[in-house]
Amino acid sequence: MESTPVNWEVLDSLVVDFAKSENLLEDSPPSPSSSSSSSSYRSRLLVLQIRRSIESGDIQAAVDLLRCYAPALLDDHRILFRLHKQRFIELLRKGTDKDKDLAIECVRVSLAPCALNAYPEAYEEFKHVLLALIFDESDQTSPVASEWSEERRFDLAGLLSTILRAYLHAYDPVFPMALRYLISIHKAYCLRQGISSPISDLTDRLLFEDRDPSATPQENLFEAPPFDEVDIQALAHAVELTRQAAVDSLRFAKGDLFQAFQNELCRVRMNVSLLDEIVHDYCVYRGIADSCIKSPSAAKLANGQSKDCLLNFDSRNSKLSDGEASVNNVDSECAGEANADSVSTQAIDVVMRFALETTNHREDCSTSDANHDQSCRRLRRSRYHSNRQRSRKRWRGRVVKWEVTPYAPSSEMNKQDFMSVLDHSGCRLVQDQVSNNQSILENLNGLEDNKYEILLEIKDLAEKGLAAEVFEELNAIDPDFFVQNPILFFQLKQVEFLKLVCDGNLAMALKVACTHLGPLAASNQSLLKPLKETLLALLSPSEAASTKGIPLSILATSLQVAMSRRLGIEEPQLMKIMRATLHTHNEWFKLQMCKDRFEEFLKIDLLKDVDAPVNNNAMFKQHSDICTHGSSQSTICSSSKLPDDVSSPSPVSSSNEGLIDETAILKIMEFLALPRADAIHLLGQYNGNAETAIQQIFS
Asked: Which stretches make up the CTLH domain (predicted)?
């Protein structure tokens, strides 16, 4: 799993799109899709507000919001009946005489008339719920104990959320949907293969087991034409539904496979608080977001370790009822002042160590004057640091305006009371030490005071193909780095070799090959093949740039990750999740012996393609553009080609699979409720005859 290639630039784009869609970044530049994203964001907030109102028992507030923003939903008497019934219970729950009178009025004016034509069982349910007038909530043996249960609130809130998402098209951005899908497949694969997941501690906390209730289609939709069995089976196995549930989901989506897929994915609940944390950590690591404010998880950890530090975070409003959203109440202005006026002692130690190592090993990196070389290094770092700072955005966090008032310090509080910052490498809150360390800061003027900045500089240089500069920087920081990472050294020198060939400097290119590439390949047999392919560039220097080599973005990330480990910086959790889940996604569909119908829709195919260029305009078009492919494609899954470099672990050969008729596979999957791979195995035992296989099973 560690070696699974990932197109990190594509992931960057997905993450940025998610952060912008959720307003997690400040001062995001407008984009062509900003208007639609803003509309979707407001719709998601509306769904969330209605959900919270129901969960808190304020049913009337939810009804008022529905009447204002989605009045058509109240025309469905099934929904209206459930809302009135829950409102009746909540009024009784308050226990006052006035509320009891309001409950009886609710029965007379709203609940009873609605029960007459909501659905066949509604009137019986209406008579049953009236028993709540005489049986108290505390009586757990009463016939209406289930009606008093607060779980009814959450079920109703989940159902309304499912319906509203589809009605308002308030779907999540591509990134969280893809993450749900990949994690679900990862869990299914590990369970089927009987292996332990290396990321189970993350996935178990990130993806909840329960789902929102499914929306049942209206009765007039039961007359919809039959759906393609390929679509039914694809949906059923993609989101773990029974066949009938998949049919109902397609009916609710009026036959649109991709809309049904989105509806089912968004039913799976996520811990959005944790999602925001891992996204923030990834954004800081990749240089997407400013690192001046640490994620809430680190803040809470730090708060437990340092009792003398203050963090502007209101814990009473930070946790929402169902993990739908988290709220970051860090006062950005105070945090900015603290960041400007204080410094992490651990960061100072790191910079001092870097400065000492740079001084001790300077003669190994350059023959120029040490002072001049140090000045050049400082200027270059300052230039890259300035460029990156301009491109990075400040992390805003998830703020729900109607619930949260940003925390502001009182006028009596001194500025020094808020001069605390998060140490990004140690997750600790440290006090302002500027006055005590002024001389140290002066000596270190011009050098980076954060390990992240050094790593991002190296990443930037590698992405631009400046191999010599990368080697110089890394060798100055850690002379043993390339001794411990010979593969990365080979790849870096490979980039340098190809650049020299492309520039026509063949003599210097041969020197690089003789001095570095040859000895490395001689000591590592796995490097002989890439060495031979690299040397072929000498035959046609004009085409050297197109010679197959490691993509610069992959090399840059590999260098960043390896150097992070050397400096004690943990790799972002999101990178671990993506490597593991993309690996199991490959393995899962090798077992299923077909192509994933939804990987293009969720950009999973681009995440796997390390050579795919990133085009934001093309990547983040409306989902409807993708859905126009139609839900009833006559794609023969069994004929889909698998990557040439991976062999299926299945005992059924690809040639035998090709002889099995697709209709027979679908028939076995439908009648026996088997996964595709098991259906193919079974048919292989009966020469592809579905009828014979079914008869033998039931005989």
From this structure: 43-99, 451-508
In angstroms, the CA 378 to CA 447 distance is: 6
Look at the block and give the residue holding tokens 């992959």: 554
In the structure encoding, which two tokens stand for residue 502, read together?
A: 């492309």
What does the block give as tokens for 404?
């949260």
Q: For residue range 669-688, list pLDDT tens digits in order.
A: 877 777 777 888 788 777 78
Cα distances (angstroms) measured from residue 390 to each of 30, 311, 373, 383, 621: 16, 26, 26, 11, 27
Asked if 518 and 553 touch (Cβ cutoff 8 Å), the reply is no
- In the chain, the amino acid numbered 697 is I
How far is it, in rounded angstroms, from Cα 637 to Cα 228? 14
Token pair, residue 154, equals 């959450």
Burial class, 635, CB count within 10 angstroms (exposed 0-12 / middle 13-18 / buried 19+): middle
Q: Distance (Å, rounded) from C-alpha 578 to C-alpha 4?
A: 9
What's the DSSP call for residue 319?
Answer: B
Backbone angles phi, psi at 209, to 5 degrees: -75, -35
Single out the residue of 110, 260, 238, 252 nearest to residue 181, CA to CA: 238
| pLDDT digit string, tens, across residues 264-322 | 999 999 999 999 999 999 998 888 887 654 444 444 433 443 333 333 333 333 334 44
Residues in Cβ contact with 446 at an 8 Å cutoff, skipping those fewer than 6 apart:
378, 379, 381, 382
Per-domain residue ranges for the chain? 23-168, 292-449
pLDDT (tens digit per residue) in 569-598: 888 999 999 999 999 999 999 988 888 999
Among candidate residues 168, 173, 214, the one with its CA nearest the CA of residue 66: 168
